[in-house]
Each structure stands twice: as structure tokens, then as C-alpha cells.
Amino acid sequence: MDIARTPSTPDGNPELADAAPTPQDPPTIRREDYKPFAWLVPEVSLQFELGLEATRVVSTLTVARNAKADPSPMIRLNGDGLEVVSVKVDGEPSNSWTMDGDDLLVTLPGDAHEITVATEIDPSANTQLMGLYASDGMLCTQCEAEGFRRITFFPDRPDVLSTYRVRMTGSAETFPVLLCNGNLEATGTNDDGTHWAEWHDPWPKPSYLFALVAGQLVANTDSFTTMNGREVTLNIYVREGDLGRTGHAMESLKRSMKWDEETFGREYDLDLFNIVAVSDFNMGAMENKGLNVFNTKYVLADEDTATDGDFDGVEGVIAHEYFHNWSGNRVTCRDWFQLSLKEGFTVLRDQLFSQDMGSEPVKRIEDVRVLRGAQFPEDSGPLAHPIRPDSYREISNFYTATVYNKGAEVIRMMRTMAGEEAFRKGTDLYFERHDGEAATCEDFVRAIEDGAGMDLQQFRLWYSQAGTPKVSVQLEHDGDTATLHLSQQVPATPGQPDKQPMPIPLKLALFDRESGRHSGEELVVLDKAEDTFTFGGFASKPVLSINRGFSAPVTIERDISGEELVFLAAQDDDPFARYEALQDLVVSHLKQAVEGELDDAARTEARNAIAGAFRAVLVDENLDDLMRGELLVLPSETYLAETMRIADPGRIHEERQALRAAIGIALEDELAAEYQTAASVPSDLSAEARGARKVKTQALLYLAAGNPERGRELAWEQYRNARNMTDRQGALMVLAGMSGIERTNALLDFYNRYKGNALVVDKWFALQASSMHPDVLEHVKALADHPQFTLRNPNRARSLYMAFAHNPHGFHAEDGEGYRLIADVILALDPINPQTAARFVPQLGRWRRIEPKRSAMMKAQLERIAEAPKLSRDTYEQVSRSLG
Ligand code: ZN
């Protein structure tokens, strides 16, 4: 399918557009309107007669009036595209019901009843992948946030908690494995050859944590003994051919279970923990109680098909979903505005876990890179929202880097200020107080305050104010005193013109230039618009290292010289601060270069200083290779653009590439030597070997930029001799950006070798879509016609188009073709899978921060999308906010 060439509406041309496009205005849901539900639903019983094309669902709800809510004689059961087959109240057919839009309203005479509703759904027609859907011949569910209402009528809100009993019947050939939440209580066969299973989940849960899976699956089975000696059976279910790639996921799961006991005192609470990998999935994975459903991408890994980064991804997501069992499931969310309660906290927990499993500083740098690459742009654009939003139209749009990653940073700051031990007292209290409840962010903050014994009154602003605070830093020296002047400014964001100062915890150290040492790290909390801190005992002006470990998610504007940055880049004992000094050195140079502030001499001088700092990194014997590789990574074009008020993506790309080439030329010998040393490290999964691969890939990138002939040769050789996916993909990435026969040969070889493995074919698409090749746009258009390309599989759609949309070199093509292509993708994908379609909008939504020519073209594409006659709520909300 060539979506690039089938515009759905004439390019925003008003004469050709539909005469009167129907204005669509989905209602806005507000946090302040929250009201408890009028009814309790303590028990749910579900019966499924499973079929790929027709599944019959009969649900019986035990309901009782909620004494804590305003009484209502009517119960609202949400539905989404469902039709009623029958309604019974207390076992008798009832006609005291009506439809309100998609919802079913049943009038109930008394205080307690039993409602039975039958519906029939077609999983094979479910392309949104929300509710019950067919993937690759099996049936599975996705209910967060509001997917359960696509299965049966139900009060589909997270504050209605029920225990579930589920009986499912289906063909034993098509669905040999029948899974659900909780414990398997009984199985049997029917006279017609079908079979059934009955599951019971003893833990009350909201409907979004319901899951069911039926299909031809095999399991990697293992077990874990909990801290109190309970034996838990662990299963990872996959397609038969994938069983050999589940080992790393299983090890990650066992490590997660142990770590959560040791670090947060959390023990698993069922005798069974199941994970299922499915190939059609909108997100990474889902924490359904006792039955996590995963995107195959975050389960399957072996050295031949997965990179070191993929291995880390599996470990992190397995941990994340497992940790939700407490932060999300045992304590859940009152409403969707509280999403960061579970997501921010769980991201922090998975980050701390990964820090403990691997290199702590490297993990910290990676997490900050993600924050700056994805969350900072969100916070400074039209979609900015606080980690606890105040309103939404479509909740799927709020599964954002702000709610997840900034949410984690906000809780991390509490931990930094409290100290680890006191913080743990706070989380213990939180789990104890709210176990079995649907809680709020406010509940969390209060538990930390009470448990850790701290005052977080002003800190609560981090939950309500959007925008990345800017901290200006100046250090003065007089006599033997160093005086630090700090000021903060929280920028205006949509709907929030005026901001109050927030408490910003900043770790800092003052280095003596001569000895290269400091007298201890300090934590200062800037909680006013401006403040001054003095430090005695400095005969000469010290060098300031600030926001060490990235103790606060802010941008720092510091008055610091190039020499001081070089000093910190070489000397700072905080690895993050060291990385930061190098980044600052590069960022400040590139900003000046892009803005045309440098003459040739100044440019050369700056490049030499940067090359010198990189040389020091290459030869520093005290660095391990993982850290060395990390330090060598240049700031991304997206992050660079973010540091400028108005960005010219073309200039940023040119200058960044030119700097890469200059470093490659200046350090050719050192890089080549480093490359050879790294290449001689045996290929395995040890930290040493992984570090070597990371350094090798970075060295290759610089060498190829500085000396393309040599780079091509090295890359081709690396490709041919690769014994693992990290090396193979690294080489292919370099070749994909160059022309020549090696590129063609390597791409062909890679495809033929892996054409049967969907996850690796995704890499093949993504590598080409994110390449630096001058013809990347044409490549992407041609790849859309590839027989293995489809918009229906989210991984595949993203592999081509998300990779392209995040490749500034392609997306920001000067003639605007990249924007048109992504707008076409949004329009083509919206009717199929609105959740995935809407995720492309933020890239176009950056238009206000881009130079005028491109900006106008981006905006025009957003307007073209807005004129489409029928947009999903998801895409409508994102496009209208982006234009608003
Ligand atoms: Zn999560």
C-alpha cells in the first residue's frame, strides 16, 4: 500500500475540501468533576464462548448501592460499539433499560441486585487492538484504559473494584491454551469437542486489569520462591518457534521479583504469574493481574536477533509490568487523572532496578537522554500538561513521557530530599494505607510526608504545574567565599500562564582547580524565585558542578567558561556531571555555529577543544567501556532543537554532522585504535563485551563521518563478521546512511537472513527509515510497497513511519514532503488504529518552534488533517491542541 501517494483530502485547499466539514467536538472530562460511582460491583462473573469471528459474552454483575456516593436508581454501564443481546435483572428478563449513546442504563428498584447482560463481538474485526481482538490466530485482550467496555457493558472506571470469576469455552484445536487472571480452578471438555477453563482472581481489581488469552501457545515454565517461602509458578507463553528466545525474559522476571522484595518489601500474591507475548500490540506491555500481556518486542531476545539495547528493554519492561502488581494493581488509581500515581512511581521503580542490575551511571544518563529527547519537547510545546492533568478528551493521549518519565523524576526528587531510608518508610506507609484501594496522587504525597517525616506542601506544585523549570546559575568569588546565585523560572504552558516557584533539589560540588578535588557533595533546595547560597574556605574561585546525577528535571543555564567545562568533563567524580559537561561543551558550540555566530577561526578553535575533550575520554583508563561509549554519544538533533527558541533543523543537521566528521578526522588514529581493541573483546553478554560493542559502534560512526571510505570498509567487514545483532545492526546502520554496493548487499543479506522474524524485519525497516542517506524519503515511500509492510501491525507501522518521523534529516526535508508523508500516514491509520495514529501528531505539532518556512508547511499539514471528515477522538484532540 502506498499511503504516501493517496492523500485522503485535497491538501488543505479550501475550494476542494468538503463543503461543510462536520465539526467534531468530543466532550472534555475534568478532574474536578470526579464523583464516586453510585454503585459497588463486588463480584463479576463472565462467560465467554470464544470464536475468532464471533465471541459471545455473558456477564453477571453483583451490584449494591454505594453508601459513600450520591444515590441513583440507575446504573450506567459503559459500552463502546456493543449491541445488547439481552438484559436480565435478578435472573428475570428486564426491559427497564435504555441506551445513552454507547452506554447501557439500567434502572434498579432496590439496594442490591444481579444484572446479567449478553453481548456478541467480532474480535477479528477489531483493528484498534482495544478490547478482545485476534492477533496471529489467537485471541487476546487489552483493557487499559477503556477497552473493557468493548467486551461487555460495565462501569469501566478504575475506582470500581471487583473479584472476577471467568469461564471460557472454545475449540480445543484453535485455542488449546485458555488463560485469564488469577488461579485456574477447573477445566473440562464438552460433548461437542470444545473445551473450557474456569479462572478465579481473588484480588479485587478494576476492569482495566482484566485479561483473557486463548490460542496455540507454548510456555517456558519456571518457579520462584517468595520471601515468605511461597512457591510461584512462572510461565512465559509464546508461539512455538519463539520458545528459545524467552530465557532472558524469565531471568529478568525472577530478578525483578527478588529485587522488589529486597528494595521495597513487596512480595508476589498469587501462586501463578503468566506472561503472554503477542505480535499485535499498541504499547510495550500491560500489567493485567497475574496475566501480563506483552508486545513480543519486550519478551523475545537472543544474541542473534536482539541488540544489547533490546536485552535491556526486555529486562526493564518485564520489571516495570511486574512492579505494577503493587504500584498499580494492589494500589490502583481512583481516576485516569491519577495515571502518574502508578506510572511515574513504577517507572522510577524500574529505573532503580535497572540501575542495580547494570551500570548505575550509564542507566541514569540513558534515562535523562530519554527525558530530554521526549519529555522536554512535550513540556515546551502545545501538548504540555502537568504530570497530573486537569482535563482530557481521550485518555489514551495521556500515556505520555510527562506522565511516565517526568512523573518518575518527580518521585525521584522526593527520594533525593528524603534520603533512601526515609523514602522507603514513606512507600511502606503508602502500600499499607492504600492496599486494596483506588488512590490519588495526593494520597501518595501524603504517605511520603507522613512516612518520611517531611513537608511536601510546596512540592505538590510539581503535580499541578506543567513546563520545564529553567534555573539560572551564577557563581561569584570574593575573599575566601564562593557565593552561588540561583534563580528559577517556570515557563507558561497552555492554560497555565502564571507559575509559582517550585522546590528544586540541586546536588552540587565545588572543585578546587589545583587539586581537582571537592570537599563533599551538598544538596541545596531552591524554593524561591531567587536565592543565594554561600560557601566558605575557597582561596581561589572553585569550579561548580551542579544538578549532579540530574537531581532535578530542569534546564540549567550556567555562566561557565569552556575551560571549566573541559575541566569538569575530565575531572568530575559524578559520572552524570561529567557527561553533562561534555554535552554542554558540544551544545554551546553547535548553538553558536547554527546561529551563525562563529567565524572560521572560532569554529576551528571550538572543534579542537571538543576533540581534545573526546580524546581524553578515549584514553581515560579509569573509565569502563559502557561509560566511555555513553560519553561519546553526541546530543541528538531533537535535543539541540529543544535548546533553541526557533530551530532550523537543516542547519542543526549540517553542523552536527560536520562536527562529527571533524572529530572523526582529528581523532582518526585514536578511534581506529579504540575500535581494534574493542573488536578483539570476545562476543558475549558480559558487561565488558557490551561496553566494547558500544564503544565500537560509536567509533565507527565517527570514523565513517570523518573518512567515509575507511568507514564503509570497516562497517562492511564488521557486518560480515558479526556474531551478534548489536554488531550487525551497528554496521548496517552506518552502511544504510551511505551509498555504494555495500549498502545494497548488506541490506539484502540482512533481509534474506531474517525475513521470517518479524521483530528483525522491523529493524530492517527502521534502519532504512532512520538513515542519514540523502534519499531517505524515497526509500521510505518505496518501502511502503514492500510485501511485508502493513499499517495494521503497530510494530511494523512504527518501524517505518515512527522511525522516519523521528529522523530530522528525513522528516524535515526542505520541500515539506516529510510532513506530507506523515500526515498521510495519520489519515490512513486513523480509521484502523486511532491510538497509534494519534502518536504521530506531536511531531507535526512542533511547528511553532521551527523556522518559518518549514513551520508553515507543518501547520498546513495539521490543518489538512483537521479538515478530514471523520477523525477519531484521539487524533482530533491531538490535532486541535497542536493548532490551538
Ligand atoms: Zn506502566
Strand order of the largest sheet: 6-5-9-3-2-12-15-14
Unreliable residue stretches: 1-22
Number of domains: 6
- Radius of gyration from CA coordinates: 28 Å
User: What's the CATH first level of the largest domain?
Assistant: Mainly Beta
Overall description:
This protein has 884 residues and is of the alpha+beta class. The chain is globular. The two termini are 33 Å apart. The model is unreliable at 1-22 (pLDDT under 50). The chain is built from 28 helices and 31 strands. α10 packs across α14, α12 (625-631) packs parallel to α16 (687-706) and α27 (852-866) runs antiparallel to α28 (873-883). A hairpin with a 5-residue loop joins β14 (183-189) and β15 (195-205). It folds into 6 domains: 42-216, tricorn interacting facor f3 domain (Immunoglobulin-like, Sandwich); 217-330, Zincin-like, CATH 3.30.2010; 336-463, Neutral Protease, domain 2 (Orthogonal Bundle); 471-559, Aminopeptidase N, middle-beta domain (Immunoglobulin-like, Sandwich); 561-706, Zincin-like fold (Alpha Horseshoe); 756-883, Alpha Horseshoe (Zincin-like fold), CATH 1.25.50. The strands form 8 sheets. Strands 6-5-9-3-2-12-15-14 form an 8-stranded mixed β-sheet, with no helix packed on it.
